[in-house]
Design a protein that fits this description.
This protein is α/β, with parallel strands linked by helices and about 270 residues long. The protein folds into two domains: about 1-175, no CATH class; about 190-265, no CATH class. It contains five helices and nine strands. Strands 1, 2, 3, 4, 5, 6, 7, 8 and 9 form a nine-stranded mixed beta sheet that branches. Strand 2 and strand 3 (about 95-110) form a beta hairpin. The longest helix has 13 residues, at about 50-60.
């Protein structure tokens, strides 16, 4: 239970990517404040990170007497085709809310696109922030108003016209190793959790110690009581990953004891 609790605390401490309404008109949900930092529900060990976060959000929402989760993870189907999924419908006080849950890791690449939002890409360059926001706006949120969804809402005796739509979008952001300038206008700078560096430049960190957490532990704050790895051993450990174009997240400890999170990329 200790490991799951560290992940839950890491999730709790991850800031939302923006507050209020963003430039695409997507509203961020405001989680009420509470003191619960112990996650005491059993979950499957094999849960993917995204599904684990959904469990964490559900658990957190259940801490509040004025919030009632009506339904979660609703598959909307037309005949045998899945149209999509609604993450959560809840009632907060007297307000019905359709809530989409997102937890992402993005790296800032000034070479991609032209706007601040364009520059944020997934560690493997396979996805980007703008694509996710557009998918939310054009596909995931409009699903609430589909005729097939209406049939489901009718079973709950609620109507889409009474439901507001919000997202709970948390993220860890990583900037280039050399970047010092403030690059934030529309996103929360508190989301910056570390940096990224090219595998080819890793020798710049040769005096550091390293640790590679498993993916579900990417949520966690850096743990210091672990088996840190020397630079030479670490290079041998990640070489096969870089060869297969996998981007590992690592924890780094500098000689002065300072620790940082770092993605090591193959594409620079």
């Amino acid at each position: 239970m200790h490991a799951i609790n560290q992940r839950y605390i890491g999730y709790l401490n991850t800031p939302v990517l923006w507050t209020g309404e963003n430039s695409l008109g997507i509203h961020q949900f405001i989680m009420p404040e509470h003191n619960t930092t112990t996650f005491n529900v059993s979950v499957e060990n094999r849960l993917r990170l995204g599904k684990l976060v959904e469990r964490f959000v559900g658990f957190e929402l259940n801490q509040f007497k004025n919030i009632n989760i009506l339904t979660e993870n609703i598959q909307i189907q037309q005949e045998k085709r899945t149209l999509g999924e609604l993450d959560c419908i809840l009632k907060q006080d007297n307000q019905l809310i359709h809530l989409e849950i997102v937890y992402k890791f993005y790296l800032y690449d000034p070479e991609v696109g032209t706007t601040e939002l364009d520059h944020w890409i997934g560690p493997n360059r396979k996805d980007c922030l703008v694509d996710k926001l557009v998918k939310l706006k054009d596909k995931q949120l409009p699903l609430l108003y589909h005729p097939e969804t209406k049939k489901f809402l009718d079973t709950l005796e609620i109507s889409s016209k009474d439901i507001v739509q919000q997202v709970y979008f948390k993220a860890q952001l990583f900037v280039p190793h050399h970047l010092k300038a403030n690059i934030f206008q529309s996103l929360n700078p508190d989301c910056v959790q570390g940096f990224y560096i090219s595998y080819n430049n890793l020798n710049q960190l040769k005096d550091c110690k390293f640790y590679m957490p498993k993916k579900t532990d990417w949520l966690c704050a850096i743990q210091t009581q672990i088996s840190w790895c020397s630079y030479s051993n670490f290079v041998n450990e990640i070489e096969p990953l870089i060869a297969t174009k996998t981007v590992p997240l690592c924890w780094i400890k500098y000689p002065n004891g300072l620790t940082k999170k770092c993605f090591i990329v193959w594409w620079l």
